[in-house]
Design a protein that fits this description.
15% strand, 2 domains, N-(1-d-carboxylethyl)-l-norvaline Dehydrogenase, domain 2, NAD(P)-bd_dom_sf, Rossmann fold, DUF2520, DUF2520 domain-containing protein, 6-PGluconate_DH-like_C_sf, 255 residues
Amino acid sequence: MLKIVLLGGGNVAHHLFAQFSKIPEIELIQWYNRSVSAIQKFDSIIPVTNKLENLKQADVYIIAVSDTAIHEISSSLPFKDQLVVHTSGNTDLKVIDPKNRAGVFYPLQSFSKEKQIHWNEIPLLLEATNEKDLEKLQFLAKSMTDKVYLINSKQRSSIHLTAVFVNNFVNHLYSIGTDLSEQAQIPFDIFIPLIKQTTKSLETTPSKASQTGPAIRGDKSTIESHLDQLKDPLHKEIYKSITRSIINTHGREKL
C-alpha cells in the first residue's frame, strides 16, 4: 500500500484525488491546500488541512500547484529526506528543495474540473533522483495507466513546448474559427467531422504527409481571397504566418 499526501487545490489536484480514491493499492491519507475552503467539501472522505506543519507521514508527497509555487511549498515542508514530487511539465526536477528527495509525476493532459478524465489513456512522465524512488513512482503510475515514460527534465520541457503547439495553439485556432463562423452566421458544428477526421488521421499518417489546403497547393488566388475576408489584423497575420510556415516546410514557391 502506497501512502500519498496531495498538496494543491487546482484542476490537476482534483483529478488526482478522484483517481487515487479509486485505486486499492493507494491510500490517499491527506490533502493540503493553502486555502482549505477549496477542498473542505471532501473532508468527510479524506483529512484536509491548510497547515504544512500538520502533514502526515507518507511514502510520496505530490505537489500539484502552479509552477511558480512549487519551490516555495517544497522549501516550507517541515521534514527531510522524503520523496517529494511535482506535476509540472516545464519545471526542472531541481526546483524541489534539496532537503528532500525530488521527483516528477507529470500527466501529459489538459485538465479542467468539469471534464471527465480517462487516466488509462493519459501518458505519465516520471523522473526521480534515485532508483528506489523511481520504482515507487512507476508503481503509482502503472496503477493508473500503461502509458508510463521515464523522461528527464530537458526532455519534459521539450514535450511541454510541443504540447503547446499541438494542443493550446490548435485550440486557439478553433476559437478563431468559432469567431469567423459566428460572423458568417454559420454553425461551428459543421466543422466537427472535419476536425475529427484530421485528428484521427494522426494515428496512421504523419501530419506532414497529410497536409492539405491552399498553401501546399500553391493556390495564390484562394489565399488572397481568404486574406481579403479577414477583417481582424491579428487573424490576418496568423493566417499569413501559418501559410508561410506550410510553404517553407513543403518547399513550395513563396507567395
